[in-house]
Amino acid sequence: MLEIKNISKNFGGIKALNNVSLSIEKDEIVGLIGPNGSGKTTLFNIVSGLIKPDSGAVIFSGKRIEGLQPEVISLSGITRTFQEVRVIDSLNVLENTMIASLPHFKMNYHIASDAAIEALEIVGLKDRAQTPVSKLKDGEKRLLELARAIAANPKLVLLDEIMAGLMEKEQSRLANLINMLRNELEITVFWIEHVLRAMFRLVEVDRIVVLNWGNKIAEGAPDEILRNNEVIEAYLGKIRGLGGETIA
Ligand SMILES: Nc1ncnc2c1ncn2[C@@H]1O[C@H](COP(=O)(O)OP(=O)(O)OP(=O)(O)O)[C@@H](O)[C@H]1O
Fold first, then answer.
1. Does the keyword Cell wall biogenesis/degradation apply (predicted)?
2. What was the ipTM of the complex prediction?
């Protein structure tokens, strides 16, 4: 479904991505992990069209999409969430969701509204449709981000640290939702996360790709990644050592 081929991106002297390749099959959940600054969000920004790679190709459903406008990529079936929730506080929950669904449904208000309400129902925010976004709790804003991504009827969704800052109960609920996206809605998921308990234990992740300093250093099933010495050295060991994040 998605093929990332030899992508490189420099910012000034910084090699944010160095010849990174990976592919994602339909109906997979693929995790993307690595230390801060290892290039994860840069890769999402390239796939979603926010930045152009210096070299390499991104192929989605057989077509090259690198360098296309974000709106075009979104219409082709790739939507995303952002680390910093991008909702408009002056609008209500439904209006925020419709901003995402309207372009996909050729600005047809009724169809876009139905799609938005369905997305809100999926994430459990339907009862809050008329609530101003400013009244939502942080966890609810994350769910709204997800609803916006779903409302545009994607084939592939990119989730960027969607668990960050949430309580454990909210993380578990969101993990169930991610599983449901793939299992029931047939949406393929590519997911960046630092909450490793969610990545390794809560969500049914098929494969995990690990970046370090812009290089792909590992790729494999979650249990293989947990045993990979290079990954432990570059990332997992440091996190365990800090004592802040536990996987089990
Ligand atoms: N627009 C930009 N201009 C200059 N440097 C950038 C830009 N975007 C990213 N970088 C740099 O590229 C590198 C990779 O950053 P990126 O945000 O992709 O990492 P990340 O793995 O997503 O980090 P985190 O886990 O902290 O979100 C970092 O050194 C970052 O400072």
1. no
2. 0.95
